[in-house]
Amino acid sequence: MAQYKINLDEETLHGLFFQGEGVARLLEQVLNQVLQAQVTEQLQADPYERTEERQGYRNGSYPRKITTRVGTITLHIPRLRDGRFSTEMFLRYQRSEQALVLALMEMVVNGVSTRKVTQITEELCGTEFSKSTVSDLCKRLDPIVQAWNNRNLHDQKYPFLLVDAFYLKVREQGRVRSRCVMIATGINEEGYREILGLMMGDSESQSSWTEFFSWLKSRRLHGVDLVVSDHHKGLVNAVKTQFQGCTWQRCQTHFMRNLKDATPKVLQSELYARVRAILDASDEKTARVLLDQVLEDFEKKAPRAVQLLEEAYYDVTAVLTLPMRYRKRLRTTNGVERLNEEIRRRERVIRIFPNRDSVIRLVGAVLMEMDEKWSTGHRYFDMTEYWEWHEQQEKSSKTTEKVHQLA
Predict the structure, then answer these.
(1) What's the rounded Cα separation, in Å, for the pair 248 and 230?
(2) Cα gap 253→12, rounded to integer Å
(3) How far apart are CA 33 and CA 40, in angstroms?
(4) Rounded (10°) angle between helices 268-279 and 303-316
(5) What value, to the nearest 5°, has the Cα angle with vertex 360 and ends 116 and 133?
(6) Strands 226-229, 160-172: pairing kind
(7) pLDDT of res. 21
(8) pTM across the whole model
(9) Exposed end of the chain (fewer CB within 10 Å): N or C?
(10) Confidence check: pLDDT of 190 > 70
(11) Taking each helix axis from N to C terminus, what angle separates 334-350 and 356-376, rounded to the nearest 10 degrees?
(12) pLDDT > 70 in the chain, percent
């Protein structure tokens, strides 16, 4: 990784501590020095330096204004005499910045904003924006997000798939409507987490989830072995039809909330602890013994809770068939819920999206950056034990099938 030596003048340092624009001036000075360092690296020569390794010559610079959360800064982009200076320094940073700015700007431009949103826009962006500026930013950001959201998934198998949805408010045909955003997170065969895509729907109906899963499969999603989600009826039915043969794991966090609602208040703590022991059991046999004891002890005291537990048992304990190391992270959708919170943090500022495109733009840009961190960071799972277990399961299944054929 390249290291740069940055020099700051006394005026900038004074502004940083005693003037409101100090941070913007600091950022501007630092980034301009980084640009000069990068052009030196590209040319392999300092200004006016004569070396055999020189790859070209400088030809001045041109100004480019960049809008950030600390204000508008002016960068001096180097020009080259025989070529073009290239840098990717700002690309990742600006995706989510542009998405948030665009959503706010569109509200102002389309006349649907409040005074508060206008103030936030000016404070956040440090300037006013015209329709042409919005259009230009959209043209640059939208294709990037769309390309990522529609990328081909054929290079990897995704044995673990976690899906969830949340609702946003979107202005459509002059009315504010609640719309569903569906998100799929996968863990690939090498153990890295990926955000596979997002889609908007009118609701969490079976048809919406079916369309979402069909879209993922059209992008060559394959190798799915376990699907984790909450117990929404439309979602569960879509999983059964679109991923036949896969195991479905009902989110234990959502289930425990449902169980609590069905339990008399005086028994909630006791029953919660007993059911938690079932879900944390070391194997299926132990879990079944603990279940039978709970059903016997609470059948008359908490009949609704017992019925719920009995009906949901196999779905909430599906991960018990997996090796131990994979169970904790795959028994809930908590990871996806935390991802949703990252989106909510931006959504709370906007409140009402001006259209569906702005939703895909903002949410897609946030997810895209998170996906880059996940896929280039630490592995979520060491998949060695899983693939060994999976191979044994396939051999056992083939042996059983042969026995049935001979019989």
Answers:
(1) 10
(2) 51
(3) 11
(4) 20
(5) 60
(6) parallel
(7) 60
(8) 0.73
(9) N
(10) yes
(11) 140
(12) 78
- Confidence at residue 113, expressed as pLDDT on a 0 to 100 scale: 42
CA distance 186 to 224: 9
Q: Establish how many alpha carbons lie within 13 A of residue 255's alpha carbon, considering only the half-sphere containing its beta carbon.
A: 27
Contact 148, 366 (CB under 8 A): no
Rounded-to-10 torsion of CA 154, 148, 210, 389: 40
Q: Is 107 helix (H, G, I), strand (E, B) or coil?
A: helix
Tokens describing residue 363: 């949410």
Task: Report how far residue 403's alpha carbon sits from residue 359's, in angstroms, rounded to the nearest whole number.
Answer: 54
pLDDT tens track for 223-265: 999 999 999 999 999 999 999 999 999 999 999 999 999 999 9
Q: Is the pLDDT of residue 56 over 80?
A: yes
What residues does each domain of the chain span? 1-94, 96-150, 156-391
Q: What is the distance between the alpha carbons of residues 271 and 61, in angstroms, rounded to a whole number?
A: 70
User: 70: helix, coil or strand?
Assistant: coil
CB 75 within 8 A of CB 31: yes
CA distance 30 to 343: 30
